[in-house]
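User: Run a structure prediction on this.
Assistant: Running it now.
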Amino acid sequence: MNSHRPSGYRRPATLGEALRLLVEPGSTVLAGGTWLNGGRGGPARAPVVMVDLQALRLSGIESVAAGVLRIEAMTTFQQVVDEERVPTAVREAARRAEPSTFRAIATLGGYVATAEPSSELLASLLVHDAIVELAASDRTLTLPLAELLSEPSQLTDRIVTAVTIETTGISAAARVDCTRADRPIVAAVARRLSCGAVR
């Protein structure tokens, strides 16, 4: 991912205001800011105006149905790690995704929007049938995470507001790495449902 050079900062008080700011040229969403600010290699891009979502109160984890959790977009990795209702495979993937110094600020919504291809956390969300909620200027829509990852252009001028996951079944993960702190060379995540089906 290329890094960005901030040229302005906005902190909207409502989701509608955030969406209006986002369609302005050069605007980009600032969630946790761990990747937008630091970047992950590559040359600097054109200057951007950061639209900070912190004032929107999109943070929290709640049960919305039996076996279904809704995780709001600004929920940090550390909150995911600490929440016992979140499946263990997802909690562990969130713990490994970032060092402890970043887990308190990196957000699930920002991570989904960034969509790093080698992510164990995204794999864990996929096997738990993750659905992404997106806010647009004229409507709110939901998309399976797999569909969003295959067509990331669907994020244009939209904001991730939440991710829902199923918590039923049994999930497990395995990885091969050089050290426990490294990104894995190979990683796999699976979930067996009560009906016997496997994700």
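The chain has a mean pLDDT of 87.
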